[in-house]
TrEMBL record:
This is Phosphoesterase. It comes from the Bacteria. It is an enzyme of class 3 (hydrolase). Residues 5-147 form the Calcineurin-like phosphoesterase domain. InterPro entries: Calcineurin-like_PHP_lpxH, Metallo-depent_PP-like, MPP_YfcE, PdiEstase_YfcE_CS, Phosphodiesterase_MJ0936/Vps29. Gene3D superfamilies: 3.60.21.10. One of its GO terms (molecular function) is metal ion binding.
């Protein structure tokens, strides 16, 4: 059965941004949060009454550094990205995904949306809902996960 996953990160306690996703929440089964700020997860859970799996970012003091989630037999690896030096290169995080046989690697930290599919690995960054960089708009991503994985970026 298809699962719809909303991916967000780098919200930095800007709650008006997390509330702006409301019209996209109708069919969402799960939210994944890439960190910064981990404490925002409680606010978002309260707004939408939905399960959220998140990791801590470089601005967070608690939470897990990484998570692996299985959805419809697809392995999804989530981290903030700073520990893999994603501002310099995506090689480390790409090879981490390969090492653990992930289907999807999700990271944040750069505040820039990113997507690449190379063979059987998707690497993506949803961008930032609060402070986007490099001229990009505030954004998040929606994953439709079934036998395949479809990715859509949504700008606010």
């Amino acid at each position: 059965m298809k699962k719809t996953v909303l991916v967000m990160g780098d919200t930095h306690s800007q709650f008006e941004a997390t509330e702006a996703i409301n019209k996209h929440m109708k069919d969402v089964d799960l939210i994944l949060h890439t960190g910064d700020n981990y404490k925002d997860i409680n606010h978002i859970e309260g707004l939408y009454n939905i399960k959220i799996i998140g990791v801590k970012g470089n601005c967070d003091w608690y939470g897990k550094d990484e998570e692996i989630v299985l959805i419809n037999d697809k392995k999804i690896f989530i981290c903030h990205g700073h520990q893999y030096n994603v501002k310099t290169s995506l090689n480390n995080i790409f090879y981490k995904g390969k090492e653990i046989n992930a289907d999807v690697v999700i990271f944040g930290h750069t505040h820039v949306p990113y997507y690449i599919k190379e063979k059987d690995l998707i690497v993506l960054n949803p961008g930032s809902l609060s402070f986007p960089r490099n001229g990009y708009p505030k954004s998040f991503a929606i994953l439709e996960i079934d036998k395949s994985i479809e990715v859509e970026f949504i700008s606010l």
